[in-house]
Specification:
Layout: E1 3-6, H1 12-26, H2 31-34, H3 42-54, E2 62-73, E3 76-86, E4 93-100, H4 109-123, E5 129-132, H5 140-145, E6 149-152, E7 155-158
Parallel strand pairs: 4-5
Antiparallel strand pairs: 1-2, 2-3, 3-4, 5-7, 6-7
Helix pairs in contact: 1-3
Length: 166
Amino acid sequence: MFTYREASIHDAKAIARTEAASKQASLVGVIEFMTPEYELDYDQLLVKWKGYIEKTRSPRKSKDPRIIFAAFDGGLMVGFAACHHSSKWGVESELQSTYVLKDYQRQGIGTHLFELVVDWVRAEGIYSMGVNLYSENPYRQFYEKMGGEYLRSSALLWKDLKKWTL
């Protein structure tokens, strides 16, 4: 049984480990093309996620508030999804990241994290969201299944989350 909760600064190390491990195990053959070396480095990822949580580092066009939901199997973080308000692509929020450890994929964790993000976005009173993806990312199908529509080859949008259902 998996548990889910909002992540805090105390989870930054687990978030960085989860992202690095997920990228290394899940994106074999694609990772060299799409991911700069620093995005695989645990120390760099830790700086990135501490800054995101503490609001000292922001992705381009991001706005507050922001949130990270984490999934756990016992005490082990097995996935997370981060989202913030944004003006990118003409939508009101951006799904910054979603990562699930390879051994835990296809068990509904990513879907549940996505649902938590959508619920949070709606509770914030905003109803549109985008996610940026490399065109070679094999997980594009996940976001397509969630109903994202292409803006261009690297962005999927949900323009009306009021109507969104899985």
